[in-house]
């Protein structure tokens, strides 16, 4: 391509930025309402506007008094551990499904997907009873524990993420690890030292997706966790407005803004892993 | 450090011996505590791990086992439990076991008025309870820690002031209330001392009370007898019923076989609206997936362009909808869509005149439109993220080859990008479909299934099968019908499984496409 | 090896540590009420040495989670809740019957105790609430003696083009519209000879309910009442001084006062000489049937909770009308509180039997059809009542 930009190039460039900004406006404007409300000391949904008449940080102070700091820590702990372990397990499983040919492989893949289609809303009572029974023998992973919640999250996400990862593993050329195997590496070594580095961006994508999902999950967490100091962010926020829809709207918004900011920071930091890593991974030798 | 064959084998043997020993130890301990049901778990667990490590045929399973374990425990077991519930009568009034129901009913007491109360004093040490002495108008009663009445002669009593309350019994001093409660409450609260027509039990912190049980259980007849009226309630299939038809609450859970499924077929209120709800459910799930995927993919392609500046920032801003928990943003959208005071109608009115009022959530068509619109907003960042990842994985030389062939951008997209993308993304779309098919949260927060289609029909215009089931089960006949919710769960599960299964068979072709890479 | 031993040791310790906990009172309360119980619990522990633990559970979660947890032996001894949970929980066998000492019973509002009765007393009430006529004193200086006079006033005052309304009721909303039906003798469930609610005697299409609905329908038809007056809308209008009087509950007072409106509260005036009877909702505490601590719990509730001091603390935290009469008398000089109390003195407890769950949906549909003038009141209520009868299996 020459240095001279054709008018078409400029038009395309303008169009791209224009479209991006429209999309961003679409994405942001409801969020701006949350943002505005969080600075509005008048706690009422009816008075919600983007720019409050008398902005103040009172809502932020109050939500921290209610334990937002603890909730954030709990969330990072639960979602972080569950996502990391889940990614590890899924990578193992996906590798087996992608590279080995064994009896029941197709059936296993199908089962993995089907079992995941069961509506979780209906599984709550069973999950409660399972954790209750686990807790009788191992109270530190029973009801009202963060580790118990991690166990539930691990089970709930594995099928789908294994699928997702298997699809990506399928697109990594086999020739790379075959040469390692010829050199005398075991399958596990090939997986650990050849496949995983190549798949790092996929792992990052799945980690992010999983983390965000768990971060906003409240149905299960709400059944398992009791007491304010145990809550995760979404359970804390959910219970905050359960009975006080109109009078705690501002605090609720403040909590949401801080939570969303946390996600954005994590995503911004991980972006380079996802994008640059992937491009490198896809280059054939 | 690398282990050679021998070292590895020795390590395996050492690990497995430890594992076996641990499992046996655990099982033995469980046996000692009397928890027989637990014993198989450590043994089977250890055997399973041994098989995994020793059998070459189980090699692929070693990779699958960790994930599979959690999948079975946390996903499969709830599914099985749900199927089980659908074959029972689990509903309001039927949530206990029969033993629990008998326990609850026989622990009901007839309130005597005025209440009969006898003050007591306990004798012993903080570690040992010797005897409880009750003062009744008829004299002093000696109650053993096991709840039996004992003869006063059996005890050596010191009652120096002669007030009938001994200072010492068998050398044990009386315990103050605080010590008694802390040390012996747990044991004493279980005591029921047979007395006249009923029993004496701990009633307050300082008194025993005389109570007559309301019902007595007669195991020979499997019946409860009302102690006031003599009326007999025989155990029916799921609760105690008298001959005149009067039944006692609570009943108990029982196996009913296919009865719930037959109810679903026979009772019109369960299936009358099924077809209509199902049709909308499919439309909802398909449009949600297709449209949000289209938007997500378009944005991913847009943001994948290396010439676009700030694309890192753009990408971060575009995932904002994903970063706000759905139960918050859905409420915001619901406010926007309000027909009278919502932002959308206010804006439309200021632009196009005040007569315009779109019934966003009050009209079946618009309510459905609003829901799908909101769901696209909620879901596209996810689709964008995954597409972004998948786009990176497409080898650049394929495009170069296509450019040489003279293919335009659109052809490059339809011939290269899209087919390759589908390899990794098709399963994900199937999953997204099944998720949205049962996306209860957004429907419930936004419209609760409304607007109304017909009075008394619990299926509103935007109800999906799951929310319809929820209404039937929880605003149902008499409180909750969990078992009917479970029946719906099984039916919904079957439907989604069949649809996903059929789609799945097409992914085999995709797997072959990728083999060529 | 050490880690393995530790794990096994912990597992076994866990097995031994599990047991229901006699000797400790466990309370589930929502975040509004939990602090009061914590303070009461502390006082109780100091006096008796018995530990009291308060766990915060969202109000909407308590009923469902209690239903799952109590039979498994995981539930609390005491829950806080609303009286309309009693039927379902008691039918499930989850609640312990309470026997109040007579002298204590006399200190509670009779309607509130009635609300927690389902065959036997299953809860201790502490607060009651219900709707009344809430009016803007600047627009309506004095409450008319009859509803007809109020309508006459509204006829003069109402002008939807301004907009301003002489009178409003939140709709479609069966809870707020019930006083119209009940004034003329309408009811939800009839009462059998033993005084128990009979789920198959559905009074939604009784002549009284239909007459009341027609009275209401006429107001919609004439344009005095605006259809689709949801919470968001009428609170906005009321706060701007555009509504003179509205049927609502204590929960709306904060918004009105916040907007600087001088509000008055009075019983809803009689309609054609009949007194409207609003629903009364009662909040209170219930005790688990599986509690091993009944003697402790009763001691705690009767001697520490059912006292003027504790009830006033509850009132401070959650300012609803106390159900404990000595506490009510202490705060009754508040004219707003008194207005609501007088209104619900005419009221009936919202049915607490589990069958009520099937009523709301169909009834709400019918009220919407009446408000929108889609159906005649008689046929709308008939359809709703028939749908409920079908669900309840009553022919």
Compact summary:
Chain A contains eleven helices and no strands. Chain A has helices at 7-38, 58-65, 68-99, 105-116, 124-137, 146-170, 175-182, 187-216, 219-224, 233-242, 249-282.
Describe the protein's architecture and organization.
- The complex is a heterotrimer of chains A (285), B (517) and C (395).
- By secondary structure, chain A is mainly alpha-helical.
- Helix content of chain A is 74%, strand content 0%.
- Chain A has eleven helices and no strands.
- Chain A has helices at residues 7-38, 58-65, 68-99, 105-116, 124-137, 146-170, 175-182, 187-216, 219-224, 233-242, 249-282.
- In chain A, helix 3 (68-99) runs parallel beside helix 6 (146-170).
- Mean pLDDT of chain A is 82; it is low at 277-285.
- Chain B is α+β, with helices and mostly antiparallel strands and 517 residues long.
- In chain B, helix 1 (5-33) runs antiparallel to helix 2 (40-54), helix 8 packs parallel to helix 13 (364-392) and helix 15 runs antiparallel to helix 18.
- Chain C folds into two domains: 2-128 and 281-349, 3-Layer(aba) Sandwich (D-Maltodextrin-Binding Protein, domain 2); 130-279 and 352-392, Periplasmic binding protein-like II (D-Maltodextrin-Binding Protein, domain 2, 3-Layer(aba) Sandwich), CATH 3.40.190.10.
- In chain C, strands 1, 2, 3, 6, 13, 14 and 15 form a seven-stranded mixed β-sheet that branches. Chain C has a four-stranded mixed β-sheet with strand order 8-11-7-12. A two-stranded antiparallel sheet of chain C has the order 4-5.
- Residues 1-20 of chain C have low confidence and may be disordered.
- The chains are: A mainly alpha (285), B alpha+beta (517), C alpha/beta (395).
- Chains in contact: A-B, A-C, B-C.
């Amino acid at each position: 391509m020459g240095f001279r930009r054709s008018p078409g190039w400029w038009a395309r460039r303008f169009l791209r930025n224009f479209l991006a900004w429209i999309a961003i406006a679409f994405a942001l404007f409801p969020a701006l309402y949350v943002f505005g409300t969080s600075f509005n000391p008048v706690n009422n949904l009816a008075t919600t506007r983007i720019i409050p008449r008398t902005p103040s940080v009172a809502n932020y102070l109050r939500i921290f008094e209610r334990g937002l700091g603890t909730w954030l820590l709990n969330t990072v702990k639960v979602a972080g551990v569950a996502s990391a372990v889940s990614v590890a397990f899924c990578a193992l499983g996906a590798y087996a499904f992608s590279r080995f040919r064994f009896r029941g492989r197709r059936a296993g893949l199908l089962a993995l997907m089907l079992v995941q289609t069961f509506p979780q809303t209906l599984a709550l009572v069973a999950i409660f009873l399972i954790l209750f029974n686990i807790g009788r023998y191992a109270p530190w992973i029973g009801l009202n524990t963060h580790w118990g919640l991690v166990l539930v999250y691990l089970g709930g996400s594995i099928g789908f993420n294994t699928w997702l990862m298997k699809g990506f593993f399928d697109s990594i050329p086999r020739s790379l690890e075959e040469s390692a195997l010829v050199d005398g590496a075991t399958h596990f070594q090939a997986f650990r030292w050849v496949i995983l580095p190549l798949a790092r961006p996929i792992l990052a994508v799945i980690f992010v997706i999983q983390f965000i999902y768990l971060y906003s999950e409240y149905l299960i967490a709400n059944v398992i966790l009791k007491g304010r100091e145990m809550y995760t962010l979404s359970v804390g926020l959910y219970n905050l407005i359960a009975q006080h829809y109109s009078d705690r709207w501002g605090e609720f918004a403040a909590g949401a803004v801080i939570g969303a900011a946390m996600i954005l920071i994590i995503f911004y930091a991980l972006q380079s892993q996802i994008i640059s890593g992937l491009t490198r991974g896809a280059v054939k030798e | 450090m690398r282990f050679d064959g021998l070292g590895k084998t020795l390590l395996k043997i050492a690990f497995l011996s430890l594992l076996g020993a641990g499992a046996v130890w655990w099982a033995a301990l469980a046996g000692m505590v009397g928890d027989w049901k637990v014993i198989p778990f450590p043994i089977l667990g250890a055997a399973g791990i041994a098989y995994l490590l020793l059998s070459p045929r189980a090699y692929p399973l070693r990779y699958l086992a960790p994930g599979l374990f959690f999948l079975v425990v946390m996903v499969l077991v709830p599914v099985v439990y749900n199927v089980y519930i659908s074959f029972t009568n689990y509903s309001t009034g039927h949530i206990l076991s029969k033993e629990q129901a008998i326990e609850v009913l026989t622990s009901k007491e007839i309130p005597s008025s005025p209440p009969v109360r006898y003050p007591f004093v306990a004798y012993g040490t903080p570690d040992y309870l010797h005897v409880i002495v009750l003062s009744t108008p008829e004299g002093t009663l000696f109650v053993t820690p096991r709840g039996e009445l004992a003869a006063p002669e059996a005890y050596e009593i010191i009652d120096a002031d002669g007030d009938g309350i001994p200072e010492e019994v068998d050398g044990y001093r009386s315990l103050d209330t605080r010590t008694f409660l802390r040390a012996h409450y747990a044991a004493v609260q279980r005591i029921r001392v047979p007395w006249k027509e009923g029993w004496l039990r701990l009633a307050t912190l300082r008194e025993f009370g005389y109570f007559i049980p309301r019902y007595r259980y007669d195991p020979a007849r499997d019946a409860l007898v009302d102690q006031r009226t003599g009326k007999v309630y025989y155990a029916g299939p799921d609760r105690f019923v008298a001959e005149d038809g009067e039944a006692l609450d609570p009943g108990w859970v029982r196996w009913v076989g296919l009865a719930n499924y037959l109810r679903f077929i026979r009772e019109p209120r369960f299936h009358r609206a099924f077809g209509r709800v199902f049709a909308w459910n499919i439309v909802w799930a398909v449009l949600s997936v297709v449209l949000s995927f289209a938007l997500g993919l378009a944005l991913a392609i847009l943001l994948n362009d290396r010439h676009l500046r700030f694309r890192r920032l753009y990408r971060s801003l575009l995932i904002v909808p994903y970063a706000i928990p759905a139960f918050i943003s859905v409420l915001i959208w619901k406010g926007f869509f309000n027909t009278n005071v919502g932002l959308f109608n206010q804006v439309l009115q200021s632009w196009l005149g005040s007569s315009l009022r779109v019934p966003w959530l009050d009209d079946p068509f618009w309510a459905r439109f609003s829901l799908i619109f909101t769901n696209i907003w909620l879901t596209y960042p996810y689709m964008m993220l995954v597409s972004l990842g998948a786009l990176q994985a497409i080898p650049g030389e394929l495009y170069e080859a296509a450019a040489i062939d003279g293919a335009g951008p659109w052809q490059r997209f339809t011939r290269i990008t899209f087919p390759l993308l589908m390899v990794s993304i098709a399963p994900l779309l199937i999953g997204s479909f099944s998720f949205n098919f049962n996306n209860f949260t957004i429907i419930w927060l936004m419209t609760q299934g409304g607007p109304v289609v017909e009075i008394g029909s619990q299926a509103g215009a935007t109800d999906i099968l799951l929310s319809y089931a929820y209404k039937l089960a929880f605003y149902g006949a008499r409180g909750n019908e969990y078992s009917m919710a479970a029946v719906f769960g099984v039916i919904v599960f079957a439907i989604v499984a069949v649809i996903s299964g059929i789609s799945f068979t097409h992914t085999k072709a995709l797997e072959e496409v990728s083999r060529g890479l | 090896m050490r880690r393995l031993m530790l794990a096994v040791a912990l597992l076994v310790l866990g097995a031994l540590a599990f047991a229901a906990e006699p000797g400790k009172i466990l309370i589930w309360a929502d975040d509004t009420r939990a602090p009061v119980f914590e303070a009461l619990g502390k006082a109780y522990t100091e006096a008796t040495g018995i530990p009291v633990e308060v766990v915060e559970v969202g109000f909407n979660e308590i009923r469902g989670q209690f239903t799952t947890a109590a039979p498994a032996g995981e539930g609390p001894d005491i829950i806080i809740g609303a009286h309309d949970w009693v039927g379902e929980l008691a039918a499930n066998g989850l609640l312990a019957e309470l026997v109040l000492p007579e002298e204590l019973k006399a200190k509670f509002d009779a309607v509130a105790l009635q609300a927690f009765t389902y065959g036997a007393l299953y809860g201790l009430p502490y607060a009651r609430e219900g709707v009344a006529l809430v009016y803007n004193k600047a627009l309506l200086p004095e409450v008319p003696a009859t509803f007809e006079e109020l309508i006459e006033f509204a006829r003069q005052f109402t002008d939807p083009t301004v907009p301003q309304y002489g009178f409003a009721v939140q709709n479609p909303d069966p809870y707020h519209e019930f006083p119209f039906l009940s004034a003329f003798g309408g009811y939800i469930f009839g009462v059998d000879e033993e005084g128990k609610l009979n789920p198959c005697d559905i009074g939604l299409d009784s002549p009284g309910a239909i007459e009341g609905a027609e009275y209401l329908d006429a107001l919609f038809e004439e344009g005095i009442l605006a259809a689709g007056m949801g919470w968001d809308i009428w609170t906005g209008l009321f706060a701007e001084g555009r509504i003179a009087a509205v049927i609502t509950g204590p929960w709306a007072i904060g918004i009105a006062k916040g907007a600087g409106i001088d509000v008055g509260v009075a019983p809803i005036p009689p309609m054609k000489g009949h007194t409207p009877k609003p629903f009364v909702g009662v909040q209170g505490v219930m005790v688990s049937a599986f509690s091993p601590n009944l003697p402790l719990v009763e001691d705690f509730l009767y001697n520490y909770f059912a006292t003027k001091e504790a009830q006033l603390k509850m009132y401070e935290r959650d300012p609803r009308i106390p159900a404990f009469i000595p506490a009510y008398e202490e705060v009754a000089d508040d004219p707003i509180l008194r207005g609501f109390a007088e209104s619900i003195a005419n009221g009936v407890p919202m049915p607490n039997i589990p069958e009520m769950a099937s009523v709301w949906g169909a009834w709400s549909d019918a009220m919407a059809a009446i408000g929108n003038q889609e159906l005649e009141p008689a046929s709308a209520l008939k359809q709703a009542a028939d749908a409920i009868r079908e669900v309840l299996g009553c022919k």
